[in-house]
């Protein structure tokens, strides 16, 4: 592994996975490590999200459109910037945006969403690497409870199960970028230097195709 924090062949890394899996934590650490620009979806900025968790039927469409506009604007700015100079790390993948829409919207809402999506995502830049974090639903629910965001309190195990299954199906067929699938259930990216260093090595080694990473337990 290089000591120069060099990922010159990866100008854009996107991190994905279900709610509570640690996308933003990893995105922040990688952006700091690689001195990269950080793109975050900013769930706390979405004024419709609390309503959605309280009443999914009435809140689904505005919640989804807000996220779509937010993500599209960030990627538009990325596309217009100098990609030969900057490296970017995001905690979202635009291609995945429709995953939540398909789970939460009814037929008419999905039709409207699709029209907006098609117009906003023309020439969306594709990541040089996608990192997909996986963890069991019970682990996700525990992490959500521990971080104690009030608007997330209504999230149910059933909803998380549905979202997790949608993620697994999406990435089963995903071929848009090199893909690193990470078992995040036993990873401690904050406290474990060993876990983090192992993951960095895999990131720097992954340049094409589909790969899997299960961290090795530390040798005592």
Automatic annotation (TrEMBL):
GO terms for molecular function: ATP binding; deoxynucleoside kinase activity. GO terms for cellular component: cytoplasm. InterPro entries: DCK/DGK, Deoxyribonucleoside_kinase, DNK_dom, P-loop_NTPase. It holds the Pfam family dNK. Keywords: ATP-binding, Kinase, Nucleotide-binding, Transferase. Transmembrane segments: none annotated. ATP binds at residues 17-25, 143-147. Residues 13-205 form the Deoxynucleoside kinase domain. It comes from the Bacteria. PANTHER family: DEOXYGUANOSINE KINASE, DEOXYNUCLEOSIDE KINASE. This is Deoxyadenosine/deoxycytidine kinase. It comes from Pleionea mediterranea.
